[in-house]
Write a structure and sequence with these properties.
Blueprint (H helix, E strand, L loop, with lengths): L20 E2 L5 E6 L5 H5 L10 E6 L5 E4 L9 E6 L9 E11 L8 E11 L2
Parallel strand pairs: 1-7
Antiparallel strand pairs: 2-5, 3-6, 4-5, 6-7
């Protein structure tokens, strides 16, 4: 009997490291993060995107942090951006930004993961 391995695939976690910014010195910053993969694609020798899109959403990010998705959600990296014009001096300090990644083509009990990264706005 045929079983689609993507139905039991789990999203592979990755570490997101966002560099700190100095207030009034680095007014914008961006990092490119590879698209998320899963246990079938990364562990089974299949091409990225075989089990479909992994959609990332920032959970209640501060106004100065945004996410831009690539043209192909299956394989393109996404970008996380910092823009000081949306921050105030009260935002100087450490911020923890959480996110959720969900498999969109194969919904089920093990198809979402959550994670977080920290970002600090430093006083020069």
């Amino acid at each position: 009997m045929f079983q689609d391995d993507c139905r039991t695939a789990t999203i592979s976690a990755q570490t997101i490291t966002f560099p700190n910014a100095e207030w009034s010195v680095q007014t914008t910053q961006s990092i490119s993060v590879p698209a998320f993969g899963d246990s079938v694609e990364l562990g089974g020798g299949y091409a990225q995107g075989t089990c479909g899109e992994k959609d990332i959403v920032l959970n209640s990010p501060p106004a100065f942090i945004s996410l831009t998705k690539g043209t192909s959600p299956l394989t393109d990296p996404f970008t996380i951006d910092y823009d000081q014009t949306s921050a105030t001096e009260a935002d100087i300090g450490i911020h923890t930004i959480s996110y959720t990644v969900t498999m969109t083509q194969y919904p089920g009990p093990t198809t979402s993961i959550t994670g977080s990264f920290t970002f600090e706005i430093k006083c020069p």
